[in-house]
UniProtKB/TrEMBL annotation:
InterPro entries tied to this protein: Gfo/Idh/MocA-like_OxRdtase_C, Gfo/Idh/MocA-like_OxRdtase_N, Gfo/Idh/MocA_Oxidoreductases, NAD(P)-bd_dom_sf
SUPFAM superfamilies given in the database record: Glyceraldehyde-3-phosphate dehydrogenase-like, C-terminal domain (SSF55347), NAD(P)-binding Rossmann-fold domains (SSF51735)
Occurrences of domain Gfo/Idh/MocA-like oxidoreductase N-terminal (ranges): 6-127
Residue ranges constituting the Gfo/Idh/MocA-like oxidoreductase C-terminal domain according to the UniProt record: 140-361
GO MF annotations, alphabetized: nucleotide binding
The protein's name: 1-carboxy-3-chloro-3,4-dihydroxycyclo hexa-1,5-diene dehydrogenase isoform X3
Region feature (Disordered): 392-411
Pfam family for this entry, one: GFO_IDH_MocA
């Protein structure tokens, strides 16, 4: 029996915590042996969850790079602009890398990460987790089986969700392009990755795109509105009220996302959330933030062979991240509404529904893209656990391409 893969978590926030949950479910396959995060509460919380020894808990990832290698892999879940340096440094130490998306915020940084991983022979997995979603994988299987013939057009839509956008892209960490990245990269690199995935071997040769920031601007602030929701006399008439998004949820016992993000230094409860809304960024009026990222954007693409694709990202939706897709082929059409897949056959004019197995253990089953998160970590741990020559990625959604060095860096 193989020993558990030993991993260090760099960035103990929401994503680092989520990926680490795999170790709680499968301690025989994954063990968290180190943590690096500048926030005391975040690293202590993860340390207690996984019984990490004090000597392996750090407030700076540089401490890991300066030590002798003491694990097999690292989960790098730092903010978007802080991906390249730890990825490059820890790859040079020989750690296999699970890197939160986006890979980096510049082409130069992406190239340096990839080249370093190729040179050092370590596995690099970028967390485009939706490729691991069972529905997405089923769509790919249907395309590759010829169920709809030659793919002619792909139409894909991401409804971000009205309060999700306010939380993450108006008040939150991804609100400002200079501090993080533009919204399409931060939120929808998942989706552009999927379109490229479904296009197969055809390369994208033309792109056009435009978008804008709507509504969340100072000129749209209602008369009489305060700078903070807790002080606002018109808060009850605002859909983006921090009271509604955070306090109402915690009063009902909900302490997961987005409430869990609000309290940086404590477990969420009514008192801690109230204090955070009084003093922190998540209590600000959405019309008085320093946000500048697009709230809606469209992308049109042309691929080799005449395949076209269109993608839309919109903030102002009821549904949250429940992607919708239609793919038109020469023999039929695939549609996916976030709940089920249908294939319509032009010859028989029969529509067939396809189901998938959505069962995953533990906290991964509790919404969001947790199911895909589980399968992503499962694949990464499997890849690290055995030598690459033995591991067969054929059935994995992230296919090996090019020469062996390139494929090893692109698992």
């Amino acid at each position: 029996m193989l020993s558990p893969v030993k991993v260090i978590v760099v960035g103990a926030g929401s994503r680092g915590e989520t990926y680490s949950d795999f170790a709680s479910i499968h301690p025989d396959r994954l063990q968290v042996v180190g943590i690096a995060d500048p926030r005391l509460f975040a690293r202590k919380k993860l340390q207690e969850c996984h019984n990490v020894p004090e000597e392996n808990v750090f407030d700076d990832w540089h401490c890991i790079a300066e030590r002798e290698k003491f694990a097999d892999a690292v989960f790098i879940c730092t903010p978007d602009r802080l991906h390249k340096e730890p990825a490059v440094a820890l790859a040079r130490k020989g750690y296999h890398i699970l890197l939160e998306k986006p890979m980096a915020v510049t082409l130069e940084d992406c190239t340096e990460i990839a080249e370093t991983c190729i040179q050092t022979g370590v596995i690099l997995a970028v967390c485009h987790v939706l490729q691991y979603d069972p529905f997405i994988r089923k769509i790919k299987v249907l395309i590759d089986s010829g169920a709809i013939g030659d793919v002619i057009h792909i139409q894909h839509f991401e409804p971000v969700g009205f309060y999700h956008f306010a939380h993450s892209f108006v008040r939150g960490n991804w609100r400002n392009e200079a501090e993080s990245s533009f919204a399409l990269l931060a939120k929808s690199c998942h989706d552009l990755d999927l379109i490229n995935h479904w296009a197969g071997k055809r390369r994208c040769i033309k792109v056009s795109s435009f978008g804008s920031l709507n509504h969340f601007q100072k000129e749209n602030k209602p008369p009489g509105a305060a700078s903070r929701c807790l002080d606002c006399s018109v808060e009850t008439d605002c859909a983006y009220s921090a009271k509604k998004i955070y306090l109402d949820r915690v009063k009902k016992g909900w302490v997961r996302w987005p409430v869990s993000v609000v309290c940086r230094n404590s477990i969420p409860d009514i008192e801690s959330v109230t204090e955070a809304l009084k003093t922190g960024p998540y209590g600000r009026c959405v019309y008085e933030c320093d946000n500048d990222v697009c709230s809606n954007q469209v992308v049109n693409m042309e691929f080799e062979g005449g395949l076209t694709a269109s993608f839309s990202m919109v903030a102002f939706t009821e549904e949250i991240c429940l992607r919708k897709t239609s793919i038109q082929g020469s023999k039929g059409e695939v549609t996916y509404d976030g709940h089920e897949i249908k294939v319509f056959d032009f010859l028989t004019q029969i529509s067939t529904k396809h189901t998938v197995d959505l069962s995953v253990p533990g906290s991964f089953s509790k919404g969001g893209h947790g199911i895909a998160d589980y399968h992503l970590v499962d694949a990464f741990v499997s890849a690290v656990a055995v030598s690459y020559s033995e591991w067969k990625p054929t059935d994995d959604p992230v296919r090996s391409k090019g020469n062996p060095g390139e494929s090893q860096a692109g698992v």
